Design the sequence.
Protein backbone atom coordinates (compact mmCIF):
# COMPACT_ATOMS: atom_id res chain seq x y z
CA UNK A 1 0.00 0.00 0.00
CA UNK A 2 1.45 3.36 -0.94
CA UNK A 3 1.68 6.15 1.62
CA UNK A 4 -0.86 8.97 1.37
CA UNK A 5 0.27 11.90 -0.72
CA UNK A 6 1.43 14.69 1.56
CA UNK A 7 -0.39 17.87 0.65
CA UNK A 8 1.04 19.76 3.60
CA UNK A 9 3.20 22.82 3.13
CA UNK A 10 5.03 21.92 6.35
CA UNK A 11 8.45 20.25 6.21
CA UNK A 12 11.85 20.22 7.89
CA UNK A 13 12.54 23.66 6.38
CA UNK A 14 9.12 24.91 7.40
CA UNK A 15 8.10 22.98 10.55
CA UNK A 16 4.55 23.00 11.86
CA UNK A 17 4.10 24.72 15.27
CA UNK A 18 2.32 21.78 16.90
CA UNK A 19 0.82 21.65 20.37
CA UNK A 20 1.62 18.82 22.76
CA UNK A 21 -1.69 17.78 24.31
CA UNK A 22 -0.46 15.03 26.63
CA UNK A 23 2.70 14.38 28.62
CA UNK A 24 2.60 11.42 31.00
CA UNK A 25 5.18 9.33 32.78
CA UNK A 26 5.17 5.67 31.69
CA UNK A 27 7.45 4.30 34.43
CA UNK A 28 6.06 3.61 37.87
CA UNK A 29 7.44 4.88 41.20
CA UNK A 30 10.84 3.40 42.01
CA UNK A 31 12.06 3.17 38.41
CA UNK A 32 15.60 4.28 37.57
CA UNK A 33 14.24 5.63 34.27
CA UNK A 34 12.06 8.48 33.10
CA UNK A 35 10.18 7.47 29.97
CA UNK A 36 7.33 9.70 28.83
CA UNK A 37 4.38 9.35 26.47
CA UNK A 38 3.67 12.49 24.44
CA UNK A 39 0.72 13.23 22.20
CA UNK A 40 1.48 15.79 19.48
CA UNK A 41 -1.58 17.30 17.80
CA UNK A 42 -1.23 17.88 14.05
CA UNK A 43 -4.10 20.37 13.98
CA UNK A 44 -4.76 21.74 10.50
CA UNK A 45 -1.19 21.07 9.30
CA UNK A 46 -2.21 18.62 6.59
CA UNK A 47 0.67 16.40 7.73
CA UNK A 48 0.26 12.67 7.10
CA UNK A 49 2.28 9.84 8.57
CA UNK A 50 2.50 6.07 8.35
CA UNK A 51 3.60 3.38 10.80
CA UNK A 52 7.40 3.30 10.84
CA UNK A 53 7.86 7.04 10.19
CA UNK A 54 9.60 9.40 12.62
CA UNK A 55 8.66 12.82 13.94
CA UNK A 56 11.31 15.54 13.84
CA UNK A 57 11.13 17.99 16.74
CA UNK A 58 13.00 21.32 16.90
CA UNK A 59 13.82 22.06 20.55
CA UNK A 60 14.90 25.24 22.31
CA UNK A 61 17.74 25.41 24.82
CA UNK A 62 17.20 25.82 28.56
CA UNK A 63 16.74 29.50 29.54
CA UNK A 64 18.89 29.02 32.68
CA UNK A 65 21.82 27.79 30.57
CA UNK A 66 21.39 30.66 28.07
CA UNK A 67 21.29 33.14 30.98
CA UNK A 68 24.52 31.75 32.47
CA UNK A 69 26.32 31.94 29.12
CA UNK A 70 25.23 35.56 28.68
CA UNK A 71 26.44 36.38 32.18
CA UNK A 72 29.82 34.73 31.64
CA UNK A 73 30.24 36.52 28.31
CA UNK A 74 29.37 39.80 30.03
CA UNK A 75 26.59 40.25 27.45
CA UNK A 76 23.02 41.50 27.66
CA UNK A 77 21.65 39.17 24.98
CA UNK A 78 20.61 42.08 22.77
CA UNK A 79 23.93 42.12 20.87
CA UNK A 80 23.45 41.36 17.17
CA UNK A 81 25.35 38.35 15.83
CA UNK A 82 25.48 36.48 12.56
CA UNK A 83 26.89 32.96 13.09
CA UNK A 84 28.60 31.84 9.87
CA UNK A 85 27.03 28.36 9.76
CA UNK A 86 23.47 29.73 9.96
CA UNK A 87 23.75 31.79 6.74
CA UNK A 88 21.27 34.33 8.10
CA UNK A 89 19.86 37.02 5.79
CA UNK A 90 20.24 39.51 8.67
CA UNK A 91 21.85 39.41 12.14
CA UNK A 92 19.81 38.21 15.11
CA UNK A 93 20.09 38.90 18.82
CA UNK A 94 22.57 36.82 20.80
CA UNK A 95 19.76 35.60 23.08
CA UNK A 96 17.72 34.42 20.08
CA UNK A 97 20.55 32.40 18.49
CA UNK A 98 21.60 30.87 21.84
CA UNK A 99 17.99 29.96 22.65
CA UNK A 100 16.74 28.66 19.31
CA UNK A 101 19.46 28.31 16.70
CA UNK A 102 22.73 26.97 18.16
CA UNK A 103 23.76 23.86 20.13
CA UNK A 104 25.35 24.62 23.51
CA UNK A 105 26.95 21.22 24.00
CA UNK A 106 29.71 19.08 22.41
CA UNK A 107 32.53 21.67 22.36
CA UNK A 108 35.41 21.02 19.97
CA UNK A 109 39.18 21.57 20.20
CA UNK A 110 38.74 24.78 18.19
CA UNK A 111 37.41 26.65 21.25
CA UNK A 112 40.39 25.47 23.35
CA UNK A 113 42.73 27.02 20.76
CA UNK A 114 40.75 30.26 20.89
CA UNK A 115 40.81 30.34 24.68
CA UNK A 116 44.57 29.71 24.63
CA UNK A 117 45.05 32.67 22.31
CA UNK A 118 42.82 34.92 24.44
CA UNK A 119 43.58 33.86 28.04
CA UNK A 120 45.51 36.39 30.14
CA UNK A 121 45.72 34.39 33.39
CA UNK A 122 48.95 32.37 33.65
CA UNK A 123 47.29 29.38 35.35
CA UNK A 124 44.55 29.17 32.72
CA UNK A 125 47.11 29.54 29.94
CA UNK A 126 49.21 26.67 31.33
CA UNK A 127 46.17 24.38 31.62
CA UNK A 128 45.12 25.15 28.04
CA UNK A 129 48.65 24.60 26.77
CA UNK A 130 48.75 21.15 28.42
CA UNK A 131 45.47 20.19 26.76
CA UNK A 132 46.72 21.30 23.35
CA UNK A 133 49.92 19.22 23.36
CA UNK A 134 49.89 16.62 20.55
CA UNK A 135 50.43 13.78 23.04
CA UNK A 136 47.37 14.95 25.03
CA UNK A 137 44.91 14.20 22.19
CA UNK A 138 43.05 11.50 24.16
CA UNK A 139 43.09 13.60 27.33
CA UNK A 140 41.59 16.54 25.42
CA UNK A 141 38.85 14.34 23.93
CA UNK A 142 37.93 13.02 27.39
CA UNK A 143 38.04 16.54 28.84
CA UNK A 144 35.71 17.95 26.16
CA UNK A 145 33.38 14.97 26.47
CA UNK A 146 32.71 15.91 30.10
CA UNK A 147 31.93 19.56 29.33
CA UNK A 148 29.59 21.93 27.57
CA UNK A 149 30.42 25.47 26.40
CA UNK A 150 29.17 27.01 29.65
CA UNK A 151 31.76 24.95 31.63
CA UNK A 152 34.59 26.31 29.50
CA UNK A 153 33.47 29.92 29.96
CA UNK A 154 33.44 29.25 33.72
CA UNK A 155 36.88 27.60 33.72
CA UNK A 156 38.70 30.23 31.64
CA UNK A 157 37.20 33.58 32.65
CA UNK A 158 40.28 35.54 31.61
CA UNK A 159 39.73 34.58 27.94
CA UNK A 160 37.32 37.32 26.90
CA UNK A 161 35.36 36.47 23.75
CA UNK A 162 33.02 38.84 21.96
CA UNK A 163 29.49 37.48 21.36
CA UNK A 164 30.31 37.03 17.65
CA UNK A 165 33.58 35.19 18.40
CA UNK A 166 31.74 32.87 20.78
CA UNK A 167 28.84 31.98 18.48
CA UNK A 168 31.23 31.25 15.60
CA UNK A 169 32.40 28.19 17.58
CA UNK A 170 28.91 26.74 18.01
CA UNK A 171 27.16 24.24 15.79
CA UNK A 172 23.62 24.46 14.49
CA UNK A 173 20.89 23.22 16.84
CA UNK A 174 19.47 20.23 14.99
CA UNK A 175 16.03 18.66 15.23
CA UNK A 176 15.74 15.30 16.99
CA UNK A 177 13.97 12.37 15.34
CA UNK A 178 11.67 10.11 17.35
CA UNK A 179 10.02 6.89 16.13
CA UNK A 180 6.27 7.42 15.95
CA UNK A 181 4.37 5.26 18.46
CA UNK A 182 0.90 5.47 16.91
CA UNK A 183 -0.93 4.51 13.71
CA UNK A 184 -2.62 7.15 11.59
CA UNK A 185 -5.40 4.62 10.97
CA UNK A 186 -6.29 5.02 14.65
CA UNK A 187 -4.99 8.54 15.36
CA UNK A 188 -5.11 10.51 12.07
CA UNK A 189 -4.70 13.91 13.79
CA UNK A 190 -2.23 12.97 16.53
CA UNK A 191 1.26 11.54 16.74
CA UNK A 192 2.30 9.61 19.84
CA UNK A 193 5.93 9.49 20.99
CA UNK A 194 7.70 7.31 23.57
CA UNK A 195 10.68 9.31 24.82
CA UNK A 196 13.45 8.53 27.31
CA UNK A 197 14.12 11.80 29.15
CA UNK A 198 17.89 12.35 29.32
CA UNK A 199 19.26 13.67 32.62
CA UNK A 200 22.73 12.94 33.96
CA UNK A 201 25.74 14.57 35.65
CA UNK A 202 29.23 15.29 34.28
CA UNK A 203 31.90 17.63 35.64
CA UNK A 204 29.71 18.15 38.74
CA UNK A 205 26.97 19.72 36.63
CA UNK A 206 23.51 18.42 35.90
CA UNK A 207 22.99 17.83 32.17
CA UNK A 208 19.68 17.80 30.36
CA UNK A 209 18.96 16.19 26.98
CA UNK A 210 18.06 19.20 24.87
CA UNK A 211 14.95 17.89 23.12
CA UNK A 212 13.72 15.34 25.65
CA UNK A 213 13.70 17.92 28.47
CA UNK A 214 12.29 20.57 26.08
CA UNK A 215 9.22 18.36 25.69
CA UNK A 216 9.16 17.14 29.30
CA UNK A 217 9.85 20.41 31.14
CA UNK A 218 9.57 23.46 28.92
CA UNK A 219 6.59 22.80 26.66
CA UNK A 220 3.34 23.80 28.34
CA UNK A 221 0.48 21.46 27.48
CA UNK A 222 -1.80 22.90 24.76
CA UNK A 223 0.20 26.16 24.80
CA UNK A 224 3.87 26.16 23.80
CA UNK A 225 4.38 25.54 20.09
CA UNK A 226 6.72 22.63 19.34
CA UNK A 227 7.98 22.91 15.74
CA UNK A 228 7.66 19.48 14.07
CA UNK A 229 7.86 17.69 10.72
CA UNK A 230 7.23 14.13 9.56
CA UNK A 231 10.27 12.19 8.39
CA UNK A 232 9.26 9.39 6.01
CA UNK A 233 10.91 6.04 6.56
CA UNK A 234 11.49 2.81 4.66
CA UNK A 235 10.82 1.06 7.97
CA UNK A 236 7.26 -0.25 8.23
CA UNK A 237 5.01 -3.27 8.78
CA UNK A 238 4.66 -5.88 6.00
CA UNK A 239 2.61 -4.58 3.08
CA UNK A 240 1.21 -8.10 2.75
CA UNK A 241 -1.11 -8.22 5.78
CA UNK A 242 -1.18 -12.05 5.73
CA UNK A 243 2.50 -12.15 6.73
CA UNK A 244 3.62 -12.68 10.32
CA UNK A 245 5.61 -9.92 12.06
CA UNK A 246 8.23 -10.49 14.76
CA UNK A 247 9.07 -7.22 16.54
CA UNK A 248 12.01 -6.76 18.90
CA UNK A 249 11.95 -3.42 20.73
CA UNK A 250 13.34 -3.08 24.26
CA UNK A 251 12.98 0.24 26.12
CA UNK A 252 11.80 3.09 23.90
CA UNK A 253 12.43 0.75 20.94
CA UNK A 254 8.87 -0.42 21.56
CA UNK A 255 7.52 2.83 20.03
CA UNK A 256 7.21 1.84 16.35
CA UNK A 257 5.85 -1.60 17.28
CA UNK A 258 3.02 -0.02 19.22
CA UNK A 259 2.30 1.75 15.90
CA UNK A 260 2.71 -1.47 13.86
CA UNK A 261 0.28 -3.45 16.02
CA UNK A 262 -2.29 -0.62 16.06
CA UNK A 263 -1.93 -0.40 12.29
CA UNK A 264 -2.25 -4.15 11.65
CA UNK A 265 -5.24 -4.52 13.97
CA UNK A 266 -6.98 -1.54 12.31
CA UNK A 267 -6.25 -3.00 8.85
CA UNK A 268 -7.63 -6.40 9.86
CA UNK A 269 -4.28 -8.06 9.11
CA UNK A 270 -4.44 -11.86 9.37
CA UNK A 271 -0.66 -12.23 9.88
CA UNK A 272 0.33 -12.95 13.47
CA UNK A 273 2.20 -10.51 15.75
CA UNK A 274 5.03 -11.54 18.09
CA UNK A 275 6.48 -8.84 20.35
CA UNK A 276 9.73 -9.04 22.30
CA UNK A 277 10.07 -6.27 24.89
CA UNK A 278 12.59 -5.75 27.65
CA UNK A 279 13.61 -3.17 30.23
CA UNK A 280 15.02 -3.07 33.74
CA UNK A 281 12.21 -4.10 36.10
CA UNK A 282 8.82 -5.65 35.38
CA UNK A 283 6.92 -3.75 38.08
CA UNK A 284 8.22 -0.27 37.15
CA UNK A 285 9.31 -0.37 33.49
CA UNK A 286 6.66 -2.35 31.58
CA UNK A 287 5.79 0.39 29.07
CA UNK A 288 2.15 0.30 27.89
CA UNK A 289 1.54 -2.85 29.97
CA UNK A 290 -2.28 -2.71 29.87
CA UNK A 291 -2.31 -2.23 26.09
CA UNK A 292 -0.01 -5.21 25.47
CA UNK A 293 -1.93 -7.46 27.86
CA UNK A 294 -5.17 -6.43 26.17
CA UNK A 295 -3.79 -7.30 22.70
CA UNK A 296 -2.62 -10.64 24.06
CA UNK A 297 -5.99 -11.42 25.66
CA UNK A 298 -7.75 -10.68 22.37
CA UNK A 299 -5.28 -12.77 20.37
CA UNK A 300 -4.18 -9.70 18.39
CA UNK A 301 -0.66 -10.34 19.66
CA UNK A 302 0.12 -14.07 19.56
CA UNK A 303 3.22 -13.97 21.76
CA UNK A 304 4.55 -11.31 24.14
CA UNK A 305 8.01 -12.25 25.37
CA UNK A 306 9.39 -10.09 28.16
CA UNK A 307 12.99 -9.72 29.33
CA UNK A 308 13.77 -7.95 32.61
CA UNK A 309 17.45 -7.23 33.22
CA UNK A 310 17.23 -6.27 36.92
CA UNK A 311 14.55 -8.61 38.28
CA UNK A 312 17.03 -11.37 39.05
CA UNK A 313 20.78 -11.83 39.63
CA UNK A 314 21.54 -12.88 36.06
CA UNK A 315 20.53 -10.25 33.53
CA UNK A 316 18.02 -11.37 30.92
CA UNK A 317 17.75 -9.55 27.59
CA UNK A 318 15.52 -9.81 24.50
CA UNK A 319 18.17 -11.83 22.63
CA UNK A 320 18.08 -14.44 25.43
CA UNK A 321 14.31 -14.75 24.96
CA UNK A 322 14.83 -15.17 21.21
CA UNK A 323 17.21 -18.08 21.76
CA UNK A 324 14.82 -19.60 24.29
CA UNK A 325 12.03 -19.58 21.69
CA UNK A 326 14.40 -20.43 18.81
CA UNK A 327 12.44 -23.35 17.34
CA UNK A 328 9.20 -21.42 17.03
CA UNK A 329 11.01 -18.27 15.90
CA UNK A 330 12.55 -20.27 13.06
CA UNK A 331 9.16 -21.68 12.07
CA UNK A 332 7.75 -18.15 11.76
CA UNK A 333 10.75 -17.04 9.68
CA UNK A 334 10.67 -20.17 7.54
CA UNK A 335 7.00 -19.45 6.89
CA UNK A 336 7.89 -16.03 5.40
CA UNK A 337 7.65 -14.02 8.61
CA UNK A 338 9.15 -10.52 8.86
CA UNK A 339 11.68 -9.59 11.54
CA UNK A 340 11.94 -6.03 12.91
CA UNK A 341 14.33 -4.46 15.43
CA UNK A 342 14.23 -0.99 16.97
CA UNK A 343 16.52 0.58 19.56
CA UNK A 344 20.13 0.95 20.57
CA UNK A 345 22.50 0.34 17.64
CA UNK A 346 25.71 -0.05 19.65
CA UNK A 347 24.82 -3.12 21.68
CA UNK A 348 21.24 -4.38 21.58
CA UNK A 349 20.82 -4.45 17.79
CA UNK A 350 24.19 -6.23 17.37
CA UNK A 351 23.31 -8.80 20.06
CA UNK A 352 19.89 -9.39 18.48
CA UNK A 353 21.52 -9.82 15.05
CA UNK A 354 23.92 -12.45 16.45
CA UNK A 355 20.99 -14.26 18.13
CA UNK A 356 19.01 -14.18 14.86
CA UNK A 357 21.91 -15.79 12.96
CA UNK A 358 22.32 -18.40 15.72
CA UNK A 359 18.61 -19.30 15.74
CA UNK A 360 18.56 -19.67 11.94
CA UNK A 361 21.72 -21.83 11.93
CA UNK A 362 20.62 -24.04 14.82
CA UNK A 363 16.93 -24.54 14.05
CA UNK A 364 17.21 -24.24 10.28
CA UNK A 365 19.95 -26.89 10.27
CA UNK A 366 22.38 -24.55 8.51
CA UNK A 367 26.07 -23.82 8.72
CA UNK A 368 27.04 -20.35 9.98
CA UNK A 369 27.84 -19.37 6.36
CA UNK A 370 24.42 -20.47 5.09
CA UNK A 371 22.72 -18.59 7.95
CA UNK A 372 24.59 -15.43 6.85
CA UNK A 373 23.27 -15.92 3.29
CA UNK A 374 19.75 -16.53 4.60
CA UNK A 375 19.81 -13.26 6.58
CA UNK A 376 21.22 -11.38 3.56
CA UNK A 377 18.29 -12.63 1.49
CA UNK A 378 15.85 -11.58 4.25
CA UNK A 379 17.29 -8.05 4.04
CA UNK A 380 16.97 -8.01 0.24
CA UNK A 381 13.36 -9.11 0.54
CA UNK A 382 12.77 -6.41 3.21
CA UNK A 383 11.88 -9.17 5.67
CA UNK A 384 14.59 -7.98 8.07
CA UNK A 385 14.31 -4.27 8.90
CA UNK A 386 16.05 -2.20 11.54
CA UNK A 387 15.37 1.22 13.00
CA UNK A 388 18.43 1.72 15.17
CA UNK A 389 20.08 4.77 16.65
Sequence:
Amino acid sequence: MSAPVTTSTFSKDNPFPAKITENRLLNKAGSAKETRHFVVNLGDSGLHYKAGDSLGVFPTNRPTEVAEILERLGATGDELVSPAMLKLPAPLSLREVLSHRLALGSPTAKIINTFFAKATDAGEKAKLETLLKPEAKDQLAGYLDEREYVDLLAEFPSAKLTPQEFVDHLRKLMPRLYSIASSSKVYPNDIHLTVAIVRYTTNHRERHGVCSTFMADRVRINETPAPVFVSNSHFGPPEDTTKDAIMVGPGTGIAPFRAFVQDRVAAGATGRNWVFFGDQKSHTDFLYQEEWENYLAKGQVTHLDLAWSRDQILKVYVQDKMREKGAELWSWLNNGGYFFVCGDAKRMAKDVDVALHDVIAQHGGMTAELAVEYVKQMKKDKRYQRDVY
Observations:
- The domain at 245-388 is CATH 3.40.50.80 (Rossmann fold).
- Confidence is low (pLDDT under 50) at residues 1-5.
- DSSP finds 15 helices and 15 strands in the chain.
- The longest helix spans residues 348-363.
